[in-house]
Every structure is written in C-alpha cells, then in structure tokens.
Amino acid sequence: MITRAEALAMDNADQLAQKAAEFILPEGVIYLDGNSLGVMPKAAIVRVKHAVEVEWGQDLITSWNKHGWFQAPLKMGDKIARLIGAEPGSVVVADSISINVFKVLSAALAKNPTRKVILSDTGNFPSDLYVAQGLAQFMNDGHVLRAVAPEQVLNAIGDDVAVVMITEVDYRSAQRHDMKAITSKAHAHGALVICDLAHSAGAVPGLLMDADIDFAIGCTYKYLNGGPGSPAFVFVHPRLQNETMPALVGWWGHAKPFAFEGQFTGAAGITKYQCGTQPILSMQALDAALDVWADVDMDVVYAKAQKQCAMFTELAEARCGRHGIKLFGSRDFSKRGSHVCLEHEQSYAVMQALISRKLIGDFRAPNLMRFGFTPLYVSYTDVYDAVEILADVLDNRIWDNPKFLAQNAVT
Ligand SMILES: *Cc1c(COP(=O)(O)O)cnc(C)c1O
Q1: Which of 199, 265, 331, 375 has a beta carbon 3.0–4.6 Å from 169's, enabling a disulfide?
Q2: Ligand 1 within 6 A of 125 CB?
Q3: Buried b (16+ CB within 10 A) or exposed e, 126-164
Q4: Tens digit of pLDDT for each residue in 66-104?
Q5: For residue 220, how far is its CA from the centre of ligand 1 (angstroms)?
Q6: Does the Cβ of 112 fall within 6 Å of ligand 1?
C-alpha cells in the first residue's frame, strides 16, 4: 500500500502541482467536491470586482460594447471548445444545462420528424430526463422517453429512435459511456446524438468532433470552476448549426437583434442557441476561471485524476473495507470519469462527520458518498489524508451522532 511519503514524492513530481496556487483553498480543508462546485480561482475576485466597480458602476450601458459584454458568450464558448474537443465557433455559453437540453432536444426532434423515441438511460441525471419527459408530453404527438439500463444503451438503438441522449460520465457510478460506439451506431440507424458533458468538461479529454457527436450541453460550475450558478454551454456540430432550429429562441439568437424585427430570423452558426440576456457578472467569474485552463492539457489532467481515483479507492478499501465500504460502479479506471462513489449504509451521516473534519465530499441517494478528484488543485497527499480521516470517522463511529443524522436540504 502507498505511504504518505510516497504520495508526497508524487506531488513533487507532478507537473500540475503549481496550478493549485491559482485557486483560493480554505485553510485545512480537503475539498473533494469540485465535481459539484469547483473552488474559486483567485483571478475571479479581481475580474468580478472590476466588472462591478468599473464596468457596471462607471461605464454602465456602454460596457456592452466597451467591455465586450455582448460577445462574451461566444468568446467563452471558444475557450471551452478546446477543452471538449470542439471547433471554434461551435460552442456558446448560455442559460443552464436543463434549459439547453430543451433547446437541443427540441432541435434534434424537429430534425428527425418521423421518429418518436428519445433514448436515454436510467442512470442519467434526473433533470435531463425531466426535460425530455416534459417536452415529449408538450408535443402531444406520440413522442416518448425510453430510459434503459446504462449498459443496455447500445443494444437499444434501433430504427425507431430519433435521438440518443446520454450523459458521458454517470454522476453516480462515474461510468464513461463509449460515445464513439454509441454515436456510430446511432448514425447508422438514422438517429441523432446529444451528449451531456456535465461531468466531462474539465475532467476527461474532449471528444465531440472525434466521436462525431451532434449536440452537447454542459455546465461550468463543476470541473470548470465558474462559480455557483455560472451559465452552461451548448455545442452544435458545424454541419447542423444552420440546419436546425431550437424551439426556444430569443432576441440574442436573432440575425439582427438590434433591428428589433417582429419576425425571428436565426443568426448563422451557434449564436442562435442563445436566447435572452445573460448573467454578465457571473460570466466575468467564468471567464477568469476559463483562463486558468489556457495552458492545461486535458490528457495530463485525466491521467492524474485516474491515478487519484485508483489510489483513493485502493486505500479506502484497504483501510475501511471492514466497515462495509465498497466501490460503486466499475473497477476499470480507464472507463471512468473523475469521481468515486463509495457505498456505506450510513453514508449520509458519515459524510456529515467527514465535513465536520474538513474533508468535503457529498452524499447521493440512496447510500453513496461521492468524492471528486480535480487535479488542478487536489494533491496526492490530499488523497492520502482523506482516507486517514475516513478511517478515523469509521473506526471511532464518529458519524453515530444525532447531529450528523439529520438531513439538510442540499446533500
Ligand atoms: C449537474 C448536472 C446537471 C445540472 O443541470 P442545471 O440545469 O445546470 O442545474 C444536469 N445534468 C447533469 C448530467 C448534471 O450532472
């Protein structure tokens, strides 16, 4: 088993180690929840302060031109494109994932009008499924959502499927769907593919163009560190941008927004996939967060995350296996994203106890403790120390306390 001295040696040899200095990391905290809310980049403070004091405070409405507010969603889209394997001009920052699911799903269904089935899997994030259910019901013409078990997706692709809608990295099992295989079979059967990159962007190497994916959506507050509620992004393959029309459009997607015409004419390219005015202050924090990624190689990030996930799992099983700790999902770390879920029957209380010890992860129903590994600011010694804390909480039943058993609204 790895020792703390060995973990320290790995940190000393880690080419990403100096990146942690670009973030605010609260003293004494081991933060393994960057898969849910990334930590704050130091540059975000400066950028937001400037946006509030100078751009909004002094320059007011002239800032739309003077400080590039209006173009910001497309410029940030290009910064994200590099990380997710897309081309410049094919990504725009806008709205939330849930809203963007509605946009791309409605566009895909309209593009494939003779088919009625939206194929997804039961492990998908519920909000994506809810949007699909709502849209199918609203269309009221026989469209249905068919959610099969995650391992059944490939088999379930047939000639009745209009759209395959899959989250590449499962938010609980961390399983990475084989998007190349899914897309190739879907295309062979005349179906379009929507890929949710919520747990991929900033975690795993980008694959959109390489896998020939039609549409993608993702958020920026998880691995990309854009801040709470920072706007999401949407990708449309260049071959489909001018050939598709989302059901949700607005003046920011108009070809001539300041002509104020009564009729909607979509702008060329990805621009049409924005709707209305965007949260400019939030976007300043996101833009600063994206600049942190400018010199980062996603292959290096993913390789480190895989090592950290494997190290954490092996140490946790060795140190805590007798308490019934078990890895949830596949053991093949090359087919996983960058978080690890451990099963334990008292997961909620154990997680609360860990948080009280400044080891922060989260709880996912029904019995999972989830730990995210974000290589830009998590070190190998953090991983080692996290397992020491977990072992202490379990060995000494620190979780067995009424204050850790009462459930909060956000878990
Ligand atoms: C986090 C997450 C979301 C969140 O959607 P919002 O609309 O941004 O709240 C959606 N889908 C997946 C797969 C997620 O992991």
Answers
A1: 199
A2: yes
A3: eebbebbbebbeeeeeebebebbebeebeebbeeebbbb
A4: 999 999 999 999 999 999 999 999 999 999 999 999 999
A5: 10
A6: no
